[in-house]
Amino acid sequence: MCRSLVRRINFSWNLFCTTVTKEFASMAWHDGLTGRALEIAGTANSPIRVMAGPGTGKSFALKRRLTRLLEEGVNPKNVLVVTFTRNAAADLVQEIAALGVDGCEDIVASTLHSYCFRLLMKEAVFEFSGRTPRPLISISKAGVLQFEAAPLLEDMNAPDRFGNKRERTQRIRAFEAQWARLQSDDPGWAVDPVDAEFHEVLASWLQFHECMLIGELVPESLNFVRSNPLSAAIDQFDHVLVDEYQDLNKAEQVLIDHLAEHGSLGIVGDIDQSIYSFRYAHPDGIEEFNATHADTDDHVLDECRRCPQAVVAIADHVIRRNHPPAAGQRLNPMPGNPDGDLHVVQWNSMTDEVGGLASVVESLIEEQGYEAGEILILCPRRLIGYAIREKLDEAKIPVHSFYHDEALDEDKAQEAFSLLSLLANPKDRVSLRFLLGCNSQSWLAKQYRLIRDHCEESGKHPWDALEELVVGDLDLGRTGEIEARFTIIKEAIENIATLPVKELIDALFPEDDEWAEVLREMSILSMDDLDGSGELLNHLRTKITQPEMPEAGEFVRIMSLHKSKGLTSKAVIVCGCIEGLVPFRDEKLPPAEKARMLKEQRRLFYVAITRCTQFLAVSSFRRIETKAAFRIGAKTSGRGRVVSTVASQFLGELGPAAPAAMAGDDLLASM
Predict the structure, then answer these.
(1) What's the number of domains the chain is made of?
(2) In 3-state terms, what secondary structure has residue 569?
(3) Measured between alpha carbons, how far is residue 486 from residues 137, 438, 459, 465, 529 in Å?
(4) Cα dihedral sign, 498-501-507-509
(5) Average pLDDT over every residue of 155-160
(6) Residues 368-396: tens digit of each pLDDT
(7) Is residue 406 part of a domain?
(8) Looking at residues 346-372, what average pLDDT do you find?
(9) Is 69 helix (H, G, I), strand (E, B) or coil?
């Protein structure tokens, strides 16, 4: 973050806190509180578990509980609040400041990963262990890890011992899963001799390249607190409050127990909003919490304040499919809330859906008085989302899309990002390794092995060894191809080294290149706040590797269903609701795993439709071009250039409160 921006933020924050303190200084923590919210905020019991459905006021109750603690004289520095995103942490502190509570800015509020990073830095764990907290960024295609993990897989190429690339990927995932799931008393350490050898080779590669798997940060912290019971980190906190507990993996949940060992513990979450199994989330942890934590004080928030009554009715009807019939209602409407404006619509084709929904947005803005920033479009595939964005652009409606997790899908995007990494830090070994081999099917693994062996023996950095090779001061044998590649990399960096941020973005992520769209949009949105290549890199890396709520603004937002978690919008459109997209299906899974995935996909749909406060449209399309269907993974029938789709099974689970599905043209005529 640039220094001028930091000064502006500090000034604005101080002015904000001063203003609200004067205005609300007389407001006590219990002012306006009744019923369950009052019980949650007022109880001194520990541990406390709050099961809170979407829009039921969990954040309201949580901030009032924090307010009570501060008003009672608890040192805010001894309060830890763990949230799923950095934005949520900042918002919580600001909302407490709005109540005029002194010391609120000293609450330790952050994501668990951010806390762990600070802990390990403070305790010099990285220094002692020889590890570097630089995340290794990877994506998966066809069951094989790609991007920065691709050269890792090639450098570990030993098919007779570790299997092919897909099998090596599975071994890495199993390694991460052992850490995340705490499958043994010594998570991460394999018993099988082959796995043990693989882990040793993997650890050696990570250490030499000065990086970590993203999933290692929390387990490293857990190992530290387990091994150092007298550390100040163990008894620093008198109170630990955790939001979105169902989204933590088991290692994270156990770490929370250690941090709250000498204080009170409160957790908030909702099993029905658990949508992160791909991050090894452990939703059973919140359901079993009262069995694993004696004397748990249980509370339930199930009255949805956010959504219209009709939306609550269909959402409840959908999510009850995940529970036994006797479980009863999961979400209740708030008395007095309006029925809402609810539509289930189908278009003749994907192209018609794209154009039709753009027209719906135009109508909401021009005919019904909605602001662009009050409209949220949730789309399961970037291909559809970008097409809608282009239509809105043509209509001069401000719009931004947020598909951060797809930013590095394309090879050229990966190269551009790695070039930025090396520009910001010429000693970044991961980016150097990627760029040296990315244009070779073999990743020049044999030539790179010669360089790595020399560096491990001599202590040199790979960059320095390559410099010596190029000028002839070092001879390691057959390294000509990798030397030529290094020369190209150096020239590319020199060509952009002095560019200001705007020109750097243009050079790395050209405006008219489709592969650059996600990275460019992420960069442009925050361009004015970035000072140099280092800040641009940190901004992009954070957006890609850490879950975060997309930026709000005076524009329509388009994003995946996963990205909508934690958001509220006056109007919500959920599009692309066809089989294969919503729900996504993996036919290669065994039956039990398919059933588990279907339940999670239903929870994802439930999260999506409960974001709105007034208008909801759930949209599908009937036909699609075969080529497009293949690209997005749609389930289709028929043959030829155009094939048929089937509307999502979830649309048949909306229940009696749902309106009859209508044709897209009829919806437009009614608006």
Answers:
(1) 4
(2) strand
(3) 22, 12, 20, 11, 32
(4) positive
(5) 90
(6) 999 999 999 999 999 999 999 999 999 99
(7) no
(8) 97
(9) helix
3-class secondary-structure state, position 630: helix
Is 97 domain-assigned?
Answer: yes
pLDDT value at position 542? 87
The C-alpha atoms of residue 196 and residue 206 are separated, in whole angstroms, by 15
Cα 272 from Cα 290, distance rounded (Å):
18
From 495, 523, 545, give the residue that closes a domain: 545
Report pLDDT for 174: 82
pTM for the model stands at 0.88
Q: What distance lies between CA 5 and its chain's CA centroid?
A: 25
205 with 247, same domain? no
Half-sphere exposure (CA, 13 Å, Cβ side) for 250? Answer: 14
Instruction: Provide the residue range defining the domain that includes 497.
Output: 411-545
Separation between Cα atoms, residue 249 and residue 277, nearest integer Å: 9
Q: Are residues 316 and 295 in the same domain?
A: no
Euclidean distance between CA atoms 158 and 163, whole angstroms: 7
Bridge partners of residue 569, in order along the sequence:
612
Same structural domain, 53 and 163 = no
Six-digit token pair at 490? 């150096």
In DSSP terms, 341 is beta-bridged to 615
Q: Are 450 and 528 contained in the same domain?
A: yes
Do residues 545 and 135 make contact, with C-beta atoms less than 8 angstroms apart? yes
First to last CA, the chain: 44
DSSP-derived 3-state class of residue 261: coil
Does residue 181 fall inside a structural domain?
yes
Cβ neighbours of residue 35 under 8 Å, at least 6 residues apart? Answer: none
**Cα–Cα distance between 472 and 398 in angstroms, integer?**
56
**505 and 538 within one domain:** yes
User: How far apart are the C-alpha atoms of 435 and 448, rounded to whole Å?
Assistant: 12
Say if 15 falls within a structural domain: yes
Q: State the chain's mean pLDDT as an integer.
A: 90
CA dihedral for 389, 340, 270, 64, sign (positive or negative): positive
